[in-house]
Amino acid sequence: MTHSRKVYGLGAEFESAAALMAAAEKIRDTGFSHWDVHTPFPIHGMDKAMGLGKSKLSAVVFVGGLMGLLTGVGLVTIPSLYIYPMIVHGKPYTWATLPAFFPIIFELTVLFSAFTAVATMLALNQLPRFHHPVFNWDRFTKFTDDGFMMVIEAKDAKFSESRTKALLEEIGGKNVTLIHD
Amino acid sequence: MSHSTESSHLSAEHFDAPAAKKLSSLSFGISALGLLVSAFGLFNSREQFAFSWLFGFVLVFTLCVGALFWTILHHATDSEWGILVRRQMENLAGIIPALSVFFLPLLFLCAPILWKWWNVAPGADPLLDGKAAFLNHTFFSLRFVLYFVGLGGVAMVLVSRSKAQDEDGSSAHTFAMRKAAIIGLPVLGVCLTFAAVDWLMGLDYHWFSTMWGVYIFAGAAGSSMALLVLIITGLRNSGYLKAVNVEHYHVMGKFMLAFTVFWAYIGYSQYMLIWYANIPEETIYFKIRATESWHILSTLLVVGRFFIPFPFLLFQSTKKNPKVLCFVAAWMITMQILDLYLIVLPSLHQTGLAVSVYDFAAVAAVGGAAAGLFFKRLPMTCLFPKRDPRLAGSVNLHN
Q1: Three-state SS letters, B104-120
Q2: Which of A22, A33, B153, B371 could lock B27 by a disulfide, CB 3.0 to 4.6 Å apart?
């Protein structure tokens, strides 16, 4: 790690989940927007403490599910009602006999929703990727064990190497470290 | 989610006793009026009375058993979100033992009218002879007793333990209720399934559906959660239970959504298997309910029980809006009424809808009595389990 490389951000360690939560509330109130916390386990209420708001995922999944529904309806009705209308099991296929196709329509809705959910989740998280600058910080891997980490990115408008460092130390951050790309 | 060390800062709340007395007297008054009209029907138009009364009885029964289901589920899954609203589920479930009285007129006076197998002589119908081991007077009456011993017993254990915890605050009650709930879960499943088979599927002993029990359960659980939403909102609007917030409404809304979908899933599965196989002894059920005016109501049920509430409940914003959620809850209960009406009454009026005054009288009689009991017991305990060790977790609920 040479210091001629671009600064990615500032990392800080906190004592506990509670300390990290309190720190997150302060950072949120200061008005930072490009920052994240990294913990060994999910912390209930952290989304509120960080001011994250509602995830965009559900809206996208709704559209995905709707596409699945329409695909399902189209896939079963166009061939069976219009292209190859046949009488199967004594039932002429009309819109009134659509219940016969419900399982397919239902499954396609679920399938499309699931695919959309996974793909959108990965896209929103910018995954998959080979490397992330936070791993240039040697202490960072503690977050999978007993570390409660916070990283503020340099691209944040309010970021300043010296003042943000002082702020992180003031709210209880230990080992505040400059992370490079 | 759980902040066990935090205190809840909640002081005990008791429903105003004079107000409860007023509501209780009003409910019992409505019940008395319904009873009077029903008694007239019992002697003058027994056939209509029998079906109407069964409809009214099963309606209230499913709502109360649904509440027992949520109480049991709450303890069996060791959940924390609903401790604040649990007492109201318990109050509803506590009505179950008293409901057994309302079944007696059917058992003693109307059984041959409702359940056609009742007076069929052995050998007269080979299809009945095959089922005689199950469909006979002794076993039928014994099962009726067992349902109420089972369901009422579980309800009484859970209600009394919860009240005892209000007194001494001992966590031993929490563990005892958890054990009772885990035993109660199969008891509820078996009792509700067989009760549905005995009382409703038995209206036509030739007909059968393996989905029947779970279909009745799906309707009961969903509408009971809707009723809970209405009760909680009613209490909040009267100035109680201010600790219940949008997070709790969100959870209750999620359960309403789950059981809207579940009802549709079960109802559709039952319909599709019967419709597709197209065997006359199975299709007769839907054939009657697709006759004349019943067809309109059946269509309304499918649209109203699933397609209307589903888009409302799908979105977080509507579940977090108590006003909208209450509207959907009231709608769901209306649809539960329609559902049971479509199960019971077409057996009598096979050619189409024929509304009778005894339909309303039965609902008023049984429903009024249940509501009267509910309001009578409401002020006797704190409106939430005040000394549940994990109350704080429910107060500080985050979804």
Answers
A1: HHHHHHHHHHHCHHHHC
A2: B371
